[in-house]
Amino acid sequence: MEIEKEVKTMTLGHEFGAGAACLKCKDKCEGFELHFWRKICRNCKCGLTEHNVQMSSEENKKVGKLFEDTKYTGLIAKLKKDGIPSYKGNMITISLPIPKDVPMKSVTYEWAPPVANKYLAVRYIELLPPEKRPVAGTEGAAYRRQQMARQLPEHDQDPSKCHDLSPAEVKQMQQFVRKYKDEALGVGDVMLPEDMALVQAGGKDGAGVRAGDAPGGRGSGLGPGSCHHCQKSMGLGDPAVYAERAGYDKLWHPACFVCCTCEELLVDMIYFWKKGKLYCGRHYGDSEKPRCGGCDELIFSNEYTQAEGQNWHLKHFCCFDCDCILAGETYVMENDKPVCKPCYMRNYAVKCASCQGAIEPEAQRVSYGEHHWHAEPQCFKCSGCFKCLVGQRFMAVQGHLLCSVECKKKVLA
Description:
Layout: H1 2-8, H2 56-67, E1 76-78, E2 85-87, E3 92-96, E4 105-109, H3 118-126, H4 139-151, H5 167-183, E5 185-187, E6 189-191, H6 193-200, E7 240-242, E8 270-274, E9 277-279, H7 281-288, E10 305-307, E11 310-312, E12 331-334, E13 337-340, H8 341-347, E14 365-368, E15 371-374, E16 395-397, E17 400-402, H9 405-412
Antiparallel strand pairs: 1-2, 3-4, 5-8, 6-7, 8-9, 10-11, 12-13, 14-15, 16-17
Helix pairs in contact: 1-5
Family: Belongs to the prickle / espinas / testin family.
GO molecular function, one term: zinc ion binding
Keywords: Cell junction, Cytoplasm, LIM domain, Metal-binding, Repeat, Zinc
């Protein structure tokens, strides 16, 4: 019954973000219109995150569902109107005293580590690359939102966000989600290494850092250890990130808590641990299942195809422009996407500078700078004596092909 319910409620949310301007294409895009299954805009082929769509509530629901039925339920709250779990993203404003005779400074962060000690939270953020610090209204905040969408695709956890899954595929996906929630999913802990040493020694209860710790707290005075990622020493008094699934004998610099595949900061310290490595959600999924190059979903079917170094649902190996099925058909790769021959000729083929006809993908051609010619005697020839120049020395002057100085003088006289 649960599987039937999942199949019946599938939706890709085509109203969400409709008409939003593309931040990349500007006026070239008529506004966001979600492709039925590709997760991109029909008009400009860019993704949702590249359009001016406010994603906060939707992202919070997505991450809330990720943490549902896990030990991390403290990070979510049930929405009153429909009971959907929503992620408490920990957007906070912190006011800190700075040097004497200078007014107090307040900074709003779209996210900060959920620790009681505000100095520790601020120091953690200061140790991130400047362009990746989630200060509200900055490129760092935009980076966090983009990584939230990239690293934690909702179609990797929710069958209702996928396109046309069979009951068997829904069941497999549910088992996959349950498996990673039980075995891989985690959220990093921020602590001073000196305090963690005390916790491990049984001196504290492990509930978090002391509320009275000042910036650069001395802790126990024990050595802080080395980063599991870069192998360099931790700075004395600087916070470290710990991952429970990795074991508290391992620690990372804040800037080193990254996915082993894409090497991006793990957004909000949400990680997936597998065989001694940290993954973001997307690349953990890729390590477990093939991903379709057409719809970006993980493939739970036993039957799929491989082409151009990518995996594809059988129904999704289609022309990127017109969606016609490409099995057994001639296609051309454009920007790593397959395009049928008619669409290629109409939208991508270069024109012959001589006959002005589109050059077919399988046709031989000669290219010089931004100019192209059919590699045929009737097209690639001298403008002076009309000799075929295929395989010969030539010069291109003012749009003319020329075989010699004599022909140049003749044509340009």
